[in-house]
Specification:
This protein is about 10% helix and about 30% strand. By secondary structure, it is mainly β. Strands 1, 2, 3, 4 and 5 form a five-stranded antiparallel β-sheet that branches.
Length: about 55
């Protein structure tokens, strides 16, 4: 995953507006507050709640 650090500074969870953690191994941006993981496909974050993976599964 190759994301611009400036982009990572401004991206927040679209559901709760919390900051996101980077999970390089899974190519995801993780919101620990909502327990959702947003996929990064071809170095583009998919910031749609409907596309997020639940971390409670």
């Amino acid at each position: 995953m190759n994301l611009d650090p400036a982009l990572l500074e401004i991206l927040v969870c679209p559901q709760c507006r919390a900051t996101l953690a980077v999970d390089v191994d899974r190519d995801e941006l993780v919101c620990h507050l909502c327990r959702l993981a947003y996929p990064v496909r071809d170095d583009i974050p998919v910031m749609l709640v409907g596309e997020a993976r639940s971390l409670t599964d």
